[in-house]
Amino acid sequence: MSDSFLPRLVYYLSVHQWRIGTYLALLLFLSPGSSSVVYAQTSSCSELVADGGFESGQGWAIKSHGNYSVLSTVQAHTGAQSAYLAGMDNADDLLVTKLTLPAAQQSLSLSLWWKVNSEDARDTNDKLNVEVANSAGKVRQTVLTLGSDRASNRWHQSTIDLSDFAGQTIQLQFVAKTDETSITDFFIDDVSVTACGGG
């Protein structure tokens, strides 16, 4: 070993100690006995509703005894149309779409925008229920109820967890019913059911 080697080594260690510490930490992390594991995670989401903005009506079934179109340009959160339910006395409207939800390892959520207008915000008989039914239409759970007491002059967003229905075929139903007085309008737009999974 030359006389100049030791001073050079001391100099290198003093200048590059951060680099040496990094190398040592990496060696310890990658050693066979290490319990630390790093997972690379990726996430992807898929939209399950064909026409959540009601621009074409694709995938939706509509039942109404009123002489009006449920898909309407009267009010819209985005785009040209929204779903306009009730808007008359003794309304009984149904808007429904059938969805097959991915299995349990997925994260499932329903998002929708809504707006309620009413002639009498104290009337508790006018309601719109957002329901999850089985494939035959039998209601499993009412996940949101909107009444005339929610009337305002602006749009609101609601997000609902649907994880309990993972792996099932469901019907997502919007059911609006009103009494014989004080008209209430229910508007629904930008309905989205997303399934997100990690790898």
Note the main sheet: 6 strands, antiparallel
**Helicity, as a percent range:** 10-25%
| Strand elements, count | 11
- C-alpha termini separation: 54 Å
The portion of residues forming beta strands comes to 35-45%
CATH class of the largest domain: Mainly Beta
Low-confidence stretches: 9-42
Question: SS-based structural class?
Answer: mainly beta
- Please, what is the CATH homologous superfamily of the largest domain? Galactose-binding domain-like
Count of distinct structural domains = 2
What name does CATH use for the topology of the largest domain? Jelly Rolls
Number of helices: 2
Name of the CATH architecture of the largest domain? Sandwich
Rg (CA only): 29 Å
Q: What pattern of helices and strands is seen along the backbone?
A: HHEEEEEEEEEEE
Query: Quick one: overall form?
Result: globular
Question: What is the fold's blueprint, element by element?
Answer:
Elements: H1 5-15, H2 17-30, E1 43-47, E2 61-64, E3 71-72, E4 82-86, E5 92-100, E6 107-118, E7 127-134, E8 139-147, E9 156-161, E10 169-177, E11 184-198
Antiparallel strand pairs: 1-11, 2-5, 3-4, 4-11, 5-10, 6-9, 6-11, 7-8, 7-10
Concise account of the structure shown:
By secondary structure, the protein is mainly beta.
Tell me what the structure shows.
By secondary structure, this protein is mainly β. It is 13% helix and 42% strand. The chain contains two helices and eleven strands. The strands form two sheets. Strands 1, 3, 4, 6, 9 and 11 form a six-stranded antiparallel sheet that branches. The protein has a five-stranded antiparallel sheet with strand order 2-5-10-7-8, with no helix packed on it. The longest helix is centred in the first third of the chain and has 14 residues. 26% of the residues are buried. About 17% of the residues have low confidence.
